[in-house]
Amino acid sequence: DGSPSVDVTDPAELLAKVHALNQQEAKINTIGTFIIINEDSVEKKQLKEKGRDLLQKLATENGGVFVMAGG
Description:
Elements: H1 11-21, E1 30-32, H2 42-60, E2 66-68
Parallel strand pairs: 1-2
């Protein structure tokens, strides 16, 4: 679902940590291997959207590209 679940789980904190550690400015590409569908419960859809947003920001803030499975 794209959401962090071990160690640093707060998206903002995770992005800040990656920024601090990525001193050589490596490009970071991310891939969402999940699909958000209308049949998902509201809770599941929100979780997936948060995960998608995190992966998008992680790639964008580090010169990479975000790709989502299924489109």
